[in-house]
Amino acid sequence: VINEYFTKDVSEKILSEYGPQDIVTANYVVANIENLKSFFINVNHILKDGGDFIFETIAFDNIVKSSALEMINHEHYYYFTDFSVDYLCRSSGFTLKECIPVSTKGGSTRYICQKTHTNNDDIRKNIIKVNNVFEGQFSSFRESTLKQLDIIHQKILMYNDQGFDIYGFGASAGTQIILYASKLEDLIKVIFDDNL
């Protein structure tokens, strides 16, 4: 076990101790890495030529489609679309081989990126088409989300004005997003978290 940040020095240490790797995986951590390009370059550095970097992350387009505002929170530096992952791959010595939808966390994507010096033009054409559709969905997401937040605010305000004490229950990160986006921070007395 190497209990250090994944820096260039650590990638050199891995290479010297274990040699080049066939596969590197990273599930549900890539969105939390501050210097993402450096991370991708370090992953590329420890892979054999033709090796795969496989990672899963929350798909931003699924957040938009499902209006899952609570998935946008302080824990994530980044949110990904196929288009953004393709760009990151190309700028870090990878080719994006596959984008596989998975149902985890309300809709995620498993990306398979291969260490290579060529580009997969077929997947790029499809990604560009999907990205153009996504841009229209994002505007709709914004309008729909603002409307939903206003409805939530008005209902809670109505109950508060009637003298009800209002309590909440939910995972803290997602709950905080809804709470502050709906401007309810002064109206909810207590939030119970489902984690011990």
One letter per element, helices H and strands E, the order comes to HEHEHHEEHEHE
Distance between the termini: 28 Å
Biggest sheet strand line-up: 1-2-4-3
- Shape descriptor reads elongated
- Helix proportion: 40-55%
Low-confidence stretches: none
The biggest beta sheet reads: 4 strands, mixed
How many strand units? 6
In terms of structural class, how would the helical and strand content be classed?
alpha/beta
Q: Which value, in Å, is the CA radius of gyration?
A: 21 Å
Mean pLDDT, all residues: 80
Provide a count of the helices.
6
In short:
With about 200 residues, this protein is of the alpha/beta class. It contains six helices and six strands; from the N terminus they run αβαβααββαβαβ.
Q: Key terms for this structure?
A:
alpha/beta, two-stranded parallel ribbon, 196 residues
Describe the fold and architecture.
The chain has 196 residues and is of the alpha/beta class. Helix content is 45%, strand content 21%. The protein contains 6 helices and 6 strands. The protein has a 4-stranded mixed sheet. β3 and β4 (108-115) form a beta hairpin. The model has no long low-confidence stretch (mean pLDDT 80).
Topology record:
Layout: H1 8-18, E1 21-27, H2 36-46, E2 47-58, H3 60-66, H4 82-90, E3 94-102, E4 108-115, H5 121-161, E5 167-169, H6 172-181, E6 190-192
Parallel strand pairs: 1-2, 5-6
Antiparallel strand pairs: 2-4, 3-4
Helix pairs in contact: 1-2
